[in-house]
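Our preliminary data section would be incomplete without showing what the modeling component actually yields. Below, a chain of 268 amino acids is followed by its predicted structure, encoded as tokens that our downstream tools consume directly.
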Amino acid sequence: MNIGPFAQNNRQFYLIQLQYLGFRFHGWQKQPNNIPTVERMVCRTLRYVFDHSNFKVLAAGRTDAKVSVNETWMELFLDDSKELEMNQFLVDFNQNLPSDIKALKVEKTDKDFNIIQAPKIKEYIYLFSHGEKFHPFCASMMVYMKETLDLELMKKAAQLFEGTHDFWSYTYKPSETTETNVTIESCLIENNELFTASFFPEESFIFRVKGKGFKRHQIRLMMGMLFDLGMHKFTLDEFKETLDGSLRLHLSHIAPPSGLMLYKNEFI
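Predicted structure:
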């Protein structure tokens, strides 16, 4: 990795915990034509704080457009002869980040740590409501379903996602070599008590799912199936068939990204 003019022994390694509202961003990863992404904003802020570009960042995982994050990590590779004063850096970094991105903490690590390969537990949540239309301010982090949903049926199905299954039907454009066996440690739908606001509907719900890793769009495909089940477009028996990867059912309902949030991303 060549990121600056300094010798390898001057390279410093840090972990930075971040949170951000994803609604106005086109995901984490930098894109051409100055499209707003979280990575672009983070790097622009670091260049200002450091007054140089002798650094690189690497995220523990990428998010899609409009997906928010409550807790995740990125690694900072810094080529600088001056040791980073972490407390002051955290203050300076936050003061210059846009208001929809916040750094929670910074920790020193070393060259042997691999943020991509390090074992992690990820917990995603998906916020939604149904019935009476919610206040427009909710749209940045919650999805409104105009149909009345059968919540009890959805709750029963959500628990059936738990365990190890072949999630071929919940994998976006799998190839012949894609590994689609995934273990889900916990999965449920519950009343939303995590996030509240005066403009939130009286009742909203959270789909919560936890595991070591997920395929692209897997959570949104799972949520799309639960929405279809809640609208009685599928029966519970038909839903159970989607957990049999040998049937290779092509699911097309990908729930909107704005309701999805990476709630926790923890190293284990």
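Confidence is low (pLDDT under 50) at residues 1-7. Residues 8-109 form a domain with the Alpha-Beta Plaits fold (CATH 3.30.70.580). Preliminary results of this kind motivate Aim 1 of the renewal.
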